[in-house]
Structure to design on (155 residues):
């Protein structure tokens, strides 16, 4: 799957996919603000179809995977893993030594992906995510990028 930098032309498709897959989706404006702030934002595409997206923030030797999504019609084909590994590789290139992310406690598939990549749980953020019932806890995960080198090169 070809990955390329997310542009403002991608915002409608990214926001539509986010709306489809997330119980508490980011808005188009949030994705726009990420681009304006200079965050590392990427899309995976096949032809004119959006397969995945990822947004990464890097500063002070730390990276934060802010958002990662995969088209539900293309799940379980490695697109999420490819995007995650790309974002972590970019984090290393940009000087990060450690990566962090939050994941919904209900999102077992994402948790499995992150654990397979070497992330470890370091905490819980209570009532962190919005959902249809109100709020949901998030697991906080961390990964030493130095330790991740062997697993990242396998993608």
């Amino acid at each position: 799957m070809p990955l390329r930098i997310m542009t403002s032309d991608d915002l409608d498709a990214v926001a539509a996919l986010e709306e489809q897959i997330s119980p508490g989706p980011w808005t188009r404006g949030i994705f726009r603000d990420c681009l304006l702030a200079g965050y590392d934002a990427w899309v995976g595409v096949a032809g004119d179809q959006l397969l995945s997206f990822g947004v990464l923030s890097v500063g002070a030797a730390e990276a934060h995977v802010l958002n990662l999504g995969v088209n539900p019609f293309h799940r379980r084909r490695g697109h999420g893993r490819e995007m995650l590994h790309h974002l972590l590789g970019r984090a290393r290139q940009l000087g990060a030594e450690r990566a962090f992310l939050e994941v919904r406690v209900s999102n077992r598939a994402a948790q499995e992906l992150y654990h397979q990549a070497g992330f470890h749980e370091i905490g819980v953020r209570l009532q962190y995510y919005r959902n249809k019932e109100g709020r949901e806890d998030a697991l906080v995960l961390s990964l030493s990028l130095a330790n991740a080198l062997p697993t990242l090169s396998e993608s």
In short: Residues 79-93 form the longest helix (15 residues). The first strand starts at residue 3 and ends at 5. The mean pLDDT is 92. The beta strands are 3-5, 40-46, 49-59, 62-70, 98-104, 120-131, 134-144.
